[in-house]
Specification:
Layout (H helix, E strand, L loop, with lengths): L2 E5 L10 E7 L5 H12 L1 E2 L4 E2 L5 E8 L2 E9 H6 L17 E10 L2 H5 L1 E9 L6 H10 L5 E3 L8
Length: about 160
């Protein structure tokens, strides 16, 4: 089951940076597997992968002390990845071409969330891997995060 983290210490070059990260099991639920496929669709940055903001993004909502992140993509991305969009039936009424792949929530201290970077990281790790090992893999370069920007202004 996907997890949502809001924590610092994930970027070895900026250990104080607070990062919002969605951790998925690439062999987990159909939703997690679909998000995992985005890694192959993204482009390569410096020790990271990035999804073009017009292809997909992360929507973040804070209500009280509950942070919810939704990962959404355009249907064309699913088609390019040969993923059947029928399994993802939640679509905003004003944007029927946008598909929500995954929603995950966690409790968070508001002041902590206010310090978070604008981008959302997605991390892939099998369910049995500890958070410490995930962070160690990021620091060593064995694992690369996928960064998702917020919703593009043109679609907000």
């Amino acid at each position: 089951m996907a997890e949502l983290w809001v924590r610092s210490g994930m970027d070895p070059d900026a250990p104080e940076a607070v990062v919002v990260a969605v951790v998925i099991d690439p062999l987990g639920t159909p939703q997690e597997r679909a998000v995992g496929e985005l890694f192959s669709y993204a482009y390569e940055g410096e020790d990271c992968l990035m999804l073009v903001g017009t292809d997909g993004w992360a929507e973040r909502h804070l209500q009280g002390d509950v942070l919810t992140v939704e990962i959404v993509v355009h249907r064309a991305v699913l088609e390019a990845l040969a993923i059947d969009a029928a399994g993802f039936d939640e679509r905003p009424p004003v944007e029927p071409d946008v598909v929500r792949l995954l929603r995950v929530s966690t409790r968070v201290a508001g002041c902590r969330y206010e310090q978070a970077l604008d981008v959302t990281a997605v991390l892939k790790a099998p369910a049995e891997v500890t958070p410490q090992q995930i962070v160690a893999d990021l620091h060593s370069g064995q694992a690369w995060p996928l960064f998702l920007a917020p919703r593009p202004a043109a679609t907000a």
